[in-house]
Design a protein that fits this description.
Blueprint: H1 2-18, H2 21-41, H3 45-78, H4 85-111
Helix pairs in contact: 1-3, 2-3
């Protein structure tokens, strides 16, 4: 996951020149959904020993793409209003952590 995330994050500036940020975000989300589907349908010995690495590559690439695109969207939101930039980044980070916490609680509640 880390290696594929590093490779994707290094290549994103070139990808942004070819595709828009929204299209790149959509591609990252699609890769993440594809990895989740692969996790859901994967089974057997071959999946557990070989194919799970493909899932890791997709998850790493998707997570790096989504994080970098999200930060880029925040940068675009701030624009030239640099005096409020710290507040915007802080607020977005706070709500990101809140959403992840709520999602984690829902998943735990549904699993138990």
């Amino acid at each position: 996951m880390n290696v594929s995330g590093f490779i994707v994050s290094c290549s994103l500036p070139k990808i942004f020149k070819v595709f828009s940020k929204k299209v790149t975000f959509l591609g990252g989300a699609s890769a993440g959904i594809g990895a989740c589907v692969w996790i859901t349908v994967g089974h057997g010995e071959a999946y557990c020993t070989k194919y799970v690495y493909g899932v890791g590559v997709l998850m790493g690439a998707a997570s790096s793409t989504l994080v970098i695109c999200s930060l880029s969207f925040i940068h675009d939101l701030i624009g030239t209003s640099v005096e409020s930039g710290a507040f915007v980044y802080g607020a977005m980070s706070f709500w990101d952590k809140m959403a992840n916490g709520v999602a984690g609680m829902i998943i735990q509640h549904m699993h138990a």
